[in-house]
UniProtKB/TrEMBL annotation:
InterPro entries: BACON, Ig-like_fold. This is BACON domain-containing protein. Residues 66-110 form the BACON domain.
Length: 125
């Protein structure tokens, strides 16, 4: 019986060492980091005449995502409200027939809780 207990203890000891060695911590890939983000009005144009027109927002986001928030108006058309990576976003402003100058605020929101970039686009009366 003593020999059996000794062999059982030896087997359990070898198994415990084997489990300890095989249970080492995995080297996981690091958390994703945000790529540099920027958004700018192409050619610095932030004002349009009463006749309306088109301008572009140049978005640089690397591989990360972005989305647009703006009040809903019938005089502003944005072709794409979300995306990822670098993109030239066209914004079309219809003619202003209201007789008063107007402004629309467009916000480009990046992922990773980075601060948004806000643009005010003015239109003459």
């Amino acid at each position: 019986m003593k020999i059996f207990n000794y062999k059982l203890k030896l087997v359990l000891f070898v198994m415990a060492i084997g489990l300890t060695i095989s249970c080492k911590k995995e080297n996981l890939s690091p958390k994703p980091e945000p790529t540099p983000f920027s958004a700018a009005l192409e050619a610095g144009v932030s004002s349009l005449p009463a006749a309306g027109g088109k301008l572009n927002i140049v978005i640089t986001a690397g591989a990360d995502g972005w989305w647009i928030t703006t009040p809903q108006t019938d005089w502003v058309t944005i072709t794409r409200m979300f995306g990822s990576g670098d993109f030239k976003l066209p914004v079309t402003i219809k003619a202003n027939t209201s007789g008063v100058a107007r402004v629309v605020t467009i916000k480009v929101n990046p992922t990773f809780n980075l601060p948004p970039v806000t643009f005010n686009i003015n239109q003459d009366k």
